[in-house]
Amino acid sequence: MKVYLDNNATTLVDPHVFEQMEPFFVQKYGNPNSLHLFASETHQPLKTAMEKIYAGIHAPREDSVVITSCATESNNWVFKSIYFEYILTGRKNHIIISEVEHPSIISGAKFLETLGCRVTYLPINKEGIIEASTVRDYITNKTALVSIMMANNETGAIFPVQEIGEICKEFNVLFHTDAVQAIGKIPLDVQSFNIDYLTFSAHKFHGPKGIGALYIKKGRELTPLFHGGSQMGGHRSGTLNVAGIVGMGKAMEQAIDSLDYEMCEIREMRDAFEDKLLKIKDTFVVTPREKRTPNTILISFRGIEGESMLWDLNRSGIGASTGSACASEDLEANSVMEAIGADDDLAHTAIRFSLSRYTTQEELDYTLGVVLEAVDRLRAISSSYAYAPEGHESGLDSHHH
Fold first, then answer.
1. Is 70 among the catalytic positions?
2. What mean pLDDT do residues 147-163 have?
3. pLDDT tens digits, 195-226
4. Which residues lie across from 351 on neighbouring strands?
């Protein structure tokens, strides 16, 4: 059996999304910026797709949603524009992010530090969440930007962006949120939150890879990252990825339509699966489930290296991860585990299971069986776990000293 439980890294393209994209590769291939009839065939589908994207995040028409290649590009654009408009000109020299942002934010912040910007990396609390009050504590009159993710890619922890947005508004500081892990999992409304910039990627909600967007509130202009054309109202040059935009529009529409299913059925399946995992002795989950996106579990199995567990899962056809895919090449301790102060024993043992609306109960039952066997096998050979196999049932009752 093949089971995919790594949906926070990427998702399968919904067949309806693929169906809508298909004509724009071979039949309707005109460049939308040209003036002939080949181009005009793309105009209505583009307009419809953009309307679905605006509706999905409740963006008013006067605000901009600019299509990019991915959220990493969108995040970099915000940071580099802040540099050109505030830091380079000497107006302000400080930004605030959390210590558990996506690598594209952390790396962007570190790059700005080399250019003379001061960066505050806010800590998360024991539940893996940023407290809004800590943002207030660190804002100064030199703060140009606060960038805090809406939901964490590893734990699924939902951050209080509405409160953080209010604090930023009060101090007249720009607020950016990376909403990559939020769309299709929790309700999102840019109008009820004080958000200046918001980023997302289609491939996290059953759209194609290689396309994302940046929402820009009216009046919050940015210095373009790319120069060379009038596309996207001059915000971003480059020929439009028509198939990608059409796909993202359809994926956004379906993500919003499936939100109730995600928040009820998927959550119930996730909770039941998590309950069974937590019956295994010496397991540990970070964020309380009511404060998490409905599809995510980050769980540690004491005495078991995350990579070893992944190996066993992978041999049985199960795809999971030890955290962020963008960082998984580096065999470092999980950054969230380190941030909440987990001991070294636990910091290397985190496994992330992330479900989607395509996940079935049968898949989760199969996965549980594989996990139980893997726990038995790996703890029996673990140097850091004293394993007592007598009289236990499939790892549910093992003792350690």
1. no
2. 97
3. 999 999 999 999 999 999 999 999 998 999 99
4. 299
Tokens 């479900």 map to which residue? Answer: 355
The pLDDT score that the predictor gives to residue 60 is: 96
Of residues 70, 117, 168, 326, which has the active-site annotation? 326
- Side chain identity at 69, as an amino acid letter? S
Structural domain 3-9+259-380, CATH architecture: Alpha-Beta Complex (3.90)
Phi-psi region of 224 (alpha: psi -120 to 50; beta: other; left: phi over 0): beta
Angle between helices 361-380 and 267-278 in degrees, nearest 10 = 20
* pLDDT tens track for 21-34: 999 999 999 888 88
How many Cβ atoms from other residues are within 10 Å of residue 400's Cβ?
14
Task: List, by residue range, all CATH 3.90.1150.10 domains of the chain.
Answer: 3-9+259-380
Alpha helices in 10-131 (DSSP H): 15-21, 23-26, 37-57, 71-82, 103-114
For residue 126, with 0-12 CB atoms within 10 Å meaning exposed, 13-18 middle and 19 or more buried, which class applies?
exposed
- Measured between alpha carbons, how far is 80 from 235 in angstroms, rounded to an integer? 14
Assess contact for 233 and 32: CB atoms under 8 A. Answer: no
Architecture of the CATH domain 15-257: 3-Layer(aba) Sandwich (3.40)
Q: What is the per-residue pLDDT across 335-367, written as a single tens digit (0 to 9) for each? A: 676 666 666 667 678 999 999 999 999 999 999
